[in-house]
Amino acid sequence: MTDRKVTEMVPDAYKWGFHDEARYLFRTEKGLSRKVVEEIAGIKEEPQWMRDMRLRALEVFESKPMPSWGPDLSEINLNDMYYYARASERPERDWSEVPDYIRQTFDRLGIPEAERKFLAGVGAQYDSETVYHNIRQELAKQGVIFADTDTAVREHPDLVRRYFGTVVPPADNKFAALNSAVWSGGSFVYIPEGVKVEIPLQAYFRINAENIGQFERTLIIAEPGSFVHYIEGCTAPIYTTNSLHAAVVEVIVKKGARVRYSTVQNWSTNVYNLVTKRSVAYEDAVVEWVDGNLGSKVTMKYPAVYLLEPGAHGEVLSLSFAGRGQHQDAGAKAVHVAPHTTSVITSKSVSKDGGRASYRGLVRAYAGAKGVRSSVRCDALLLDEHSRSDTYPTMEIDERDATISHEASVSKVSEEQLFYLQSRGIDEQEATKMIVNGFVEPIVKELPMEYAVELNRLIELQLEGAIG
Amino acid sequence: MLESISLRKRRAIEELSARYEEPIWLLQHRLKAWRLYEDIMPPSGAEEEWRRTDLNALNLEGIRLFPSAVTHVPAPRRNGRNGYAGEIVQRDGVTLGRRLGTDLERQGILFSDLHSAAREYPDLFRAHFMTEAVQPIAWKFVALHAALWRGGVFLYVPAGAQTTVPLHAAVGLSRSGGIGVFPHTLIVAEEGSSVTLIEEHASPDDEQPGLSSGVVEILARDGATVRYVGVQDWGKNVNSFATIRAVLGAGSRLELGLVGSGSHVAKDSVAAVLGAPGANAKIIGLFLAGGEQHMDYSTLQDHRAPNTTSDLLLKSVLKDASRLVWHGLTRIRKGAAESDANQTSRNLLLGESARVAPIPVLEIEAHDVTRCSHGASVSSVDEEQLYYMMSRGLTRENATQAIVDGFLRQGLECLTSIRGHDGIGRALERRLLAKVA
C-alpha cells in the first residue's frame, strides 16, 4: 500500500516499479561483518583463495573513507542493508524451471521474449543470485563460456582465478572493496581465440527486495582476434528506502580482439548505483563502452579503458539523463600507457526537473606513450532552470608527442529551435522531444535497434512528466 | 585573541606597522591575519588543488619574512622614453620611485604605494583594502600576506576618469637573496572610468632564492573598464603564490592578461566575479616554462548575474621537464541567465619530459545559458610541419621557433590589445619570445 503511494509520487511513470512478495530461501542478517562475508563464501562453497580475498577486501573496505568528492552519499546506511539474499536454488537453463513469481517478473521486463528474438545468450539476476542462464548451443560448442560468475568459479576455477581482480583490485576504491567482499552473481564471459559472437549476449539485473545491496561481479575475457557484444540492463522496484548497487566489471581484451559493452541502466530512483567498470586493451584491441544512465538516485560510474599495448583503441559513449532528485555522475577514463594508442570519449547529458548531470573524466598519457591521440567531447542540455550540469574533465599528459583534445558545451533547448518547430505545427512538448532525441541520437544509434527504441521510449516517458 | 602570538612575531609586526606609521586598525588587521596564518592548517597534499604540486614550495625555511629596516637603495635610472603614463618601482617591498602624468593627476587618478595611500587617503584605503575582492581568510598564504605586506600599488580612478596610456609597476627582488615579498595591488575603478596597469615582477638573476606571496584586488564599478597585465618573471629559485581576484559591476569590463615565465614553483589563483548584469571578463594567459619549473594556475569565471560574459584563453609552451597544471572552473549560478562563458586551453609540449594537466570544469546551475563551452588541447610540434620548413632551408631550431611564435601569436595579439600600446608591447613580446627560443 505504501509502495503504491510512493509510486504515485514518482513524477515519471516508472514502469518497472513493481515488486514481488519475495520468498527468500536464505538471507544474511542486516549489516556487514566478517561473519556475513564468511557466510556468503560458505553458501557458495567457495575455494579458499576466494574466501581469503573476500576477507582481505572487507578489511580494505572498512579502512577506506567514503569518497569526499562527487555526489552526496551521506544517506546510504550501510548497516541497515542486506548484503545477500537468495530466492532460488540455482541458475536454470530453461525459463519454465525458474520459480513462477520470478519468471513473471522477467516476463514483464520482456527478457524471455528478447532472448528468443535477438540474443545469443541471456543471464538474469534477481537480487543476489542468478536465476537463469542460457547460451545458444552453437556458441557453447565453439568454446564460448557465458555463465554466472559463481558457476564459473566452480566450473572454470583456473580461468577465473587467473583474471579475477586483476583489472579492478579490491583496494581500488571503497565500493570495489565492498563488492570484492560480498560479490554474488554477475556474468562470466570467455570468448576463445578467433571466435566472433555476432549477436549480443545479455544479462539482466533486477533488484527486488527492499534495503538490499546488489553486488554482481562481471568478468569478460576476449582472447586474441575474438569479438563479443555484451549488454546489460537494470531495474528495481520503488521503495521508500534506498538500495545499493555496487558492481565491479572487469574486461580483458587481448590482441586484435574487440569487445563492446552496452549498459542501459534504469534503476528506480531509490538506488545508489556505484559501479567500477574497467577494461584493459592489448595490442590493436578495441574496447567500446556504451553507457546509458537513465535511472537511479545517484550514479557514480566512469567506465575506463587502460590502453596497454600499441594500436589499442578505446571508445566510450556516455548518455545520462537526470530527472527529479537524480544525480548522474557519469563519465569515462582513458589511460594511455602504451604508444600509438587512441581513445574517443563522447558524453551527452540531459538534466530536467532539478536533476543534476555531471561528466567526470580522465585522460592520461604516460611518459613514453608517444603518438597518443585522444579526443573528448561532452555536450549537456538543460531543460529547465532548476537543473544543473557539471563537467569535470581531468587531463594528465606526461608525454610530449601526444595529441589530446577536450571540448564541452552546455546549452538549453533554444527558443529559436522551439519556435521553428512550432511554426511547423508541432506542439511544444513534441518539439522538445524532437530536440532531445536529436541531441542523444549519436549515442542511441550505437545500441541494437530494440534497445534504441526502448531508450527513446524511456526518454519520452521522462520528458512527458515535465513539459506540458 | 592575539595573546597567543609569540612576543617576537608580535614585536616584528608592530615594528613593521610602526615603520609605515600605520593606524591602529591596520596593525590589528596584520596581527589578526598572522593569527589566521598560524591557525589555518597547511594543505596535506591530498586536496585536489594540491595533488599535483610539491608542498615543499610552502617551506619558509631560509626566507626572511621580516627584513631589517629599509636599507638605502639607489633609485633606478629614470627612462623618460618608456611611454608609460605613470610608474612605480619597488624592490624588496620598498618603493624606489614613483611618477604620475599631470593629466592623470588632474583627473583625480591616484597612483601610489599602499603605505602612502593608507596615510594620505585613509578612508579610500580602508574602504577597499582586503574588503571586497580578497579577504585574509582565502588561504594560508593570503593570511601571511595580509600580515606582512609591504610596498604595494594603489590605483584609484574616480568616476568618469579615462586613461588610454598604461601605467606601469615594476616590482623586484634585490640581489640580497632569501627575501620574502608580499606585493599587493589594489585597483579601484569607479563608475564609467577606464584604466590600464601593467605590472611586472622580476628578479635580478636566477640564483637568489626567495618567496613571493602576492595579492591583486580589482574592483571595477558599473560601466568601468580595467585592463591589467601581470607579468611574473621571478628568478628560477623563487617560489611564488598569487591570488588575483576581480569583482565586476554592471556593464563593466575586465581585460586580464597574465604572463608567467618565472619562478621554480608558481601557484596562482585567478578569479573574475561577474556579480552584476552585463559584466564582461576576458582573461588571457601565456605560460612559458622550462627546466624543472612547475606552474599551477586555478582560474574561476564566476557568473552570478544575468547577461554576463567571460572568455578565457590560456596558451602554454612547456620545455624540458617543466610542468603546468590548470584547474579552470566556470560557474554559472542560478539566476545568471543569458550568460555566455568560454574557456580554451592550448598547450604545446616541447620538452621530452614536459607534462601538462589541464582540468577545465563547468558547473552550470542556470538553465538559460546562452552558451557555455570549453576546450583544451595538448600537442607537440608537428614533425611534418618541421620537415616542410626544414626543406625550405630553415634549421630545426628556427623552424621550431617559428611554430612556437605562430602558436603564441593569438595570445600575444590579445595581450597587445589589452595593453593598448604598441611600443611597450613589442619590447615585452620580444622578451617573451626570447624566453622560448
Task: Give your account of this protein's structure.
The complex is a heterodimer of chains A (468) and B (437). Chain A is an alpha/beta fold and 468 residues long. Chain A has two domains: 2-301, no CATH class; 415-468, no CATH class. In chain A, 26% of the residues lie in helices and 35% in strands. Chain A has twelve helices and 24 strands. In chain A, strands 5, 6, 8, 9, 11, 12, 14, 16, 17, 19, 21 and 23 form a twelve-stranded mixed sheet that branches. In chain A, strands 4-3-7-10-13-15-18-20-22-24 form a ten-stranded mixed sheet. A two-stranded antiparallel sheet of chain A has the order 1-2. In chain A, a hairpin with a 2-residue loop joins strand 3 and strand 4. Mean pLDDT of chain A is 88; it is low at 1-11. Chain B is an alpha/beta fold. Chain B has two domains: 7-276, no CATH class; 382-437, no CATH class. Helix content of chain B is 24%, strand content 38%. Chain B is built from nine helices and 20 strands. In chain B, the strands form two sheets. Chain B has a ten-stranded mixed sheet with strand order 2-1-5-8-10-12-14-16-18-20. In chain B, a hairpin with a 2-residue loop joins strand 1 and strand 2 (94-100). In chain B, helix 2 (24-39) runs antiparallel to helix 6, helix 4 (114-120) crosses helix 5 and helix 7 (383-391) packs across helix 8 (396-419). The radius of gyration of chain B is 21 Å and the shape is globular. Strand 24 of chain A pairs antiparallel with strand 20 of chain B, so a sheet runs across the interface.
